[in-house]
Specification:
Number of helices: 2
Radius of gyration: 19 Å
Strand content: 35-45%
Shape: globular
Mean pLDDT: 91
Largest sheet: 4 strands, antiparallel
Structural class: mainly beta
CATH architecture: 8 Propeller
Low-confidence stretches: 1-5, 10-33
CATH superfamily: Quinoprotein alcohol dehydrogenase-like superfamily
Distance between the termini: 51 Å
Number of domains: 1
CATH topology: Methanol Dehydrogenase, Chain A
Length: 424
Amino acid sequence: MKPLRQNIRNLLCCVFTITLAFFAIASRPHSGHAGDWPEILGPDRNGKAVNEKLQAWQNTPTIRWKVKCGAGYAGAAVSNNKVYLWHREGNEERLDCLNSNDGTRVWQARFEAVYRGGVDADRGPRCVPLVSGDRVFVYGAAGDLSAIATNDGSTLWSRQLRSEYDADDGYFGAGSSPLLIDNVLITPVGGSDAAGLVGVDATTGKTLWKTLDQEAAYASPIRVEIDNQTRAVAVLRLQTAIIDPESGKVINTFAFGKRGPTVNAATPIEHEGKLLLTASYGIGCRMLDLTARSLKNIWDTNDVISSQYVTPVLVDQQLYAITGREDFGTGELRCVRWSDGVIAWSRPDFGTAHLLGVNNKILAQHVDGRLELVAADPDQFRSLANFDLPPGTYRAFPALADGTLYCRRNLSPTECELLAIDLD
């Protein structure tokens, strides 16, 4: 059993990035503006910065401030000049509200931490906070969902969803983002008695509906528009579902995933009625036409993008994606044509990195602690600038707001640090 356990640990540990994510998407398409990164993958939950400008730096970027924090892989959220940092200190999960200018703490909310850990020794939260209006929502590693007032840090309500619905911790605990549509927090729980997804009232915390007998995954659900109707797309352990967010009614499901020591961790991408999903572990990627009467593949392959946990970013009809596995040292950057999956170019030695789209550039935060700016050029790979971050492991998803990049580095299973880096 020990060799098998070690293989599973080696196989999946890096996936853990769980950049996982999380956070909820806004109730309607977000117009976004410079200065806000209110959830995972940015204001439109697609990894693209809105109204940000970024040039190749000539001098070493300045680290404006650093803040020590506890365990976890949750990236920061930024809204209205406040930075929200979700982490674990001892037996508490803590949400720090920081001043974006200097990193000073405005307030702190505390919750009992009960997650005992899984494949990864880090027991901190995995999910990026979700800021919406006067509230911020956090989802802990044990599946506790809470709403907190942004003005003073007071707890408005809190639910132990995974305990209530008898959900398994999985490999890494809870790590899939709740999605906010109108006033419904669509939360991947993976519980028994058809509680794969649970719709929670964002105002009261009460359950509105639950559906699907499926374990949760680590990919975050997204909002899409199909035939002028708002739907949610949620990637679960072995299938992906399209649901009505108001009622929880399942509109459609299709298989995606694989049994065994695997995870679905990359958030899906939707563009003009087309949906892209990708995962590693022999799963590959597929693009579907959501506008067709019956769902069908536009392209489906295991040879183009097999992302272990990094969500690709779409710029000018080209996908920029990491394929391969961090634990195998096979992270490769690829430029892939959105329409048909044709590979424009590959960079085999690139390594694993989170990717942000900033106008006509790709900002990569490498797991080993290097920032790299790459041209979004379908003709060739062009590296524009590099910057070595302080030593550490950078698996949490970064946030880019008002010219500042917020990167979280893990120093040990119990200690992290948030860096605010001036890139403007």
